[in-house]
Amino acid sequence: MTLTRHGATTAPDGQPCTGPLAPHVEGFAAQLSRKGYAQTTVRAKCNVLADLSRWLERRRLTLAALDEDRLTQFLATLRHGEKKWRGDSATGQQLLEYLRGSDEIAAAAQRIDRTPAACLTGDFEEFLHSERGLSRSTLISYLPIVRRFLDERFGREALHLELLRPQDLHGFILRELLRISRSHGKRVITALRSFLRFLLQRGAIQTDLARTLPGVASWRLSHLPKSLPPKQVEQLLACCDRSTPTGKRDYAILLLLARLGLRGGEVLAMTLEDLDWERGEIVVRGKGQRLERLPLPEDVGAALACYLCEVRPACATRRVFIRMKAPLQGLAGPVAVCCIVRRALQRAGLNPEFKGAHLLRHSLATNLLHRGASLGEIGQLLRHQQPTTTQIYAKVDIAALRGIALAWPGGAS
Which is the catalytic residue, given 186, 187, 384, 395? Predict the structure, then answer.
């Protein structure tokens, strides 16, 4: 097997690529190259394909027989043999995706969970969607909570819902609160309350157990927003190594967070079409699928232009910020932005209590307030839909609070 155009080479044992996968070597190699894999990696992955193709040929299996189970059998022979590459499993999955994308093999078989807990959770999902009209994101947050509760209480056995007692619910809630924050604890209560009312409505329970659920002590405006002073924000930005491709990308991301107060998810969702260079604006894909325009500050624009022109490799995705290593695709979830912030804090020698992407958003609002901006102006920049959302920042304006504070009883006159 010699494919100089795409970097594939003969198999490690010197045998040619034969078998049902042989016609697909070039296409697979080309796709890997488009995703940014180095030629040595492309060759290694194509050698795995060649081994798999010969394995299928020896067993007189056609391409249509290839699926996850066959791949597992093939990988088992590698583990017990002499040849083994640590990327074999990932390469096999990539190959299956490539073949399915070309309609060469059947789609993956759907593994349907038929357990009683899964069936009841499915009914609850349909109820939330069709009767209550809840969004997909709400369903995604509610359903795992309900499934964990059912699995803990009943396992894979029959669901004797009539045996549910308040202590079952309270015990589950207390265990959940030991591992999550108070705000997430409120979500657990809300999800269970909705589920219990669903059970009551369909007659699965006779008592309104939702009334027995406790509340979570997490009062609104009960805490101060975590923030950095302006000097520390600049220190964080200055510690980015802009001589490296990753440093240039991270610097542009941090500027968007620090200068415009974008949320981590908004940075990830930004596409090349969202950058309006002629008007000096960017389109922000905010909460609730809202599209909003913000002015593009000079330093942010310069950092974005540097990243796009000098660093960002050509790839299929239209996302602005992508991985710097293969496969070349958008960053994986808001946690990726949080990791960029944490690494920047570590480089700058800063150790605030809160280290997420929202730290720079809070810092921007707090610093603007100290410089005389009104809460209305801050809310407009942060794109808050309700004025009450911005009220949390009033607590950091100590000078204004002193003016309205009542005298301490018995204090000096």
Answer: 384
Which residue in 6, 43, 361, 362 is the catalytic one? Answer: 361
Annotated catalytic residue, options 263, 312, 355, 362: 263
- Per-residue pLDDT of 205-241, as tens digits, reads 999 999 999 877 655 555 556 789 999 999 999 999 9
pLDDT in tens, 10-50: 444 455 789 999 999 999 999 999 888 989 999 999 999 99
Can you state the angle between helices 245-260 and 230-238, rounded to 10 degrees?
A: 160
Architecture in CATH of 116-212: Orthogonal Bundle (1.10)
Distance CA 269, CA 285 (A): 7
Residue 45 is a catalytic residue? no
The answer to whether the 116-212 and 230-400 domains have the same CATH topology is: no
| Known catalytic residue at 393 | yes
Task: Please report, for the chain, the start and end positions of each structural domain, with discontinuous segments joined by +.
Answer: 22-101, 116-212, 230-400
Residue 384 appears among annotated catalytic residues: yes
Which residues fall within 8 angstroms of residue 69, CB to CB, at 6 or more apart?
Answer: none
Q: pLDDT confidence of 63, banded at 50, 70, 90? A: very high
Integer Cα distance of 235 and 338 in angstroms: 18
pLDDT digits (tens, 9 = 90+) for 91-132: 999 999 999 998 988 888 777 778 889 999 999 999 998 888
Catalytic residue among 202, 287, 290, 325: 287
Predicted TM-score of the model (pTM): 0.69
The yes or no reply on domain 230-400 and CATH 1.10.443.10 is: yes
Annotated active-site residue 220? The verdict is no
Residue 270: the pLDDT is 93
Q: Which of 153, 248, 259, 358 is catalytic?
A: 358
Residue 358 annotated as catalytic? yes
Q: What is the pLDDT of residues 301-314, one digit of tens each?
A: 999 999 999 999 88
Q: How is domain 22-101 classified at the architecture level of CATH?
A: Orthogonal Bundle (1.10)
